[in-house]
């Protein structure tokens, strides 16, 4: 089921998340090798929480993320299926899945968020949301495992994993940056076959005068709203920046005459 998100609110939310996190957090490079994995402290997805990260890949299949209740009933799995992102999850043994409309195996950066709110779980990819809803007897997801990124360790007993065959899924191949639980960076407990400190799209810090770098359509973009400067890189005086903003709005047909600011 598709979700229409208020564009202004969502853009601001994504900009704040990306702007505050890019350039500060750990990057991981996965080679798609057997028994590769990164293990993080548990994400409490039981009732209401967000998880987000950025990724880049050129492959069409692979396990992105997995967590469960220790082999009983509940799980949450993110994977690549035919070049799209699939969210598959279970609560109280009621299971459903959603698939993104957008292809992501294009070797470009993408922003992904999973938003949990009791019976409703939303997969958000580059600003487009798809929701999965269940009607189990209990309104929360049981989560006891750590969170696995890129693969699940082969030494975990299959009986302790809720989703059959998750260990046999191809490992993710590509880059993952800025894994967040809400606004917090989770603790990395360990990894195997993973290279740390991978490339970062805002690593060159292109924004001047305190501008905040974030991703927009896979490209580094500058948020100059708190700097007193304007322009693509927050390098232009505010008057020139406002003139440029007016010009852009006119070109896009937003302003029919002069754009006026108080």
Brief characterization of the structure:
This is Neurexin 3. The chain has 262 residues and is mainly β.
Q: How does this model look, in words?
A:
It is a single chain. By secondary structure, this protein is mostly beta strands. The protein contains two helices and 19 strands. It has helices spanning 7-21, 238-251; strands spanning 2-3, 27-31, 37-40, 48-56, 62-68, 75-81, 84-91, 94-99, 110-117, 120-125, 128-133, 147-149, 173-181, 188-192, 194-196, 212-216, 219-223, 229-230, 236-237. Strands 1-11-10-9-4-13-2-15 form an eight-stranded antiparallel β-sheet, with no helix packed on it. A seven-stranded antiparallel β-sheet has the order 8-7-6-5-12-3-14, with no helix packed on it. A two-stranded antiparallel ribbon has the order 16-17. The model is unreliable at 4-24 and 256-262 (pLDDT under 50).
Pick out its properties.
262 residues; mainly beta; Jelly Rolls; Laminin; 2 domains; 7-stranded antiparallel beta sheet; 19 strands; repeat
């Amino acid at each position: 089921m598709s979700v229409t998100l208020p564009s202004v609110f969502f853009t601001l939310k994504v900009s704040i998340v990306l702007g505050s996190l890019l350039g500060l957090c750990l990057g991981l490079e996965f080679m798609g090798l057997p028994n590769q994995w990164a293990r993080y402290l548990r994400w409490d997805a039981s009732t209401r929480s967000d998880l987000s990260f950025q990724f880049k890949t050129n492959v069409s299949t692979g396990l992105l993320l997995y967590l469960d209740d220790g082999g009983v009933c509940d799980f949450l799995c993110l994977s690549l299926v035919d070049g799209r992102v699939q969210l598959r999850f279970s609560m109280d043994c009621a299971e459903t899945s959603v698939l993104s409309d957008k292809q992501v195996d294009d070797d470009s950066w993408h922003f992904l968020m999973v938003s949990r709110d009791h019976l409703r779980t939303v997969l958000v990819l580059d600003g487009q949301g798809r929701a999965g809803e269940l009607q189990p007897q209990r309104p929360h997801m049981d989560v006891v495992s750590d969170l696995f990124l890129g693969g699940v360790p082969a030494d975990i007993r299959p009986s302790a994993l809720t989703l059959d065959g998750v260990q046999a899924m191809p490992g993710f191949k590509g880059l993952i940056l800025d894994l967040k639980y809400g606004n917090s960076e989770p603790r990395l407990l360990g990894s195997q076959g993973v290279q740390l400190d991978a490339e970062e799209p805002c690593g060159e810090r292109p924004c001047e005068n305190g501008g905040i770098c974030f991703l927009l359509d896979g490209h580094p973009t500058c948020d100059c709203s708190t700097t007193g400067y304007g322009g693509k890189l927050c390098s232009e005086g505010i008057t020139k920046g406002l003139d440029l903003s007016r010009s852009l709005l006119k070109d896009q047909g937003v302003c029919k005459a002069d754009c006026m600011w108080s």
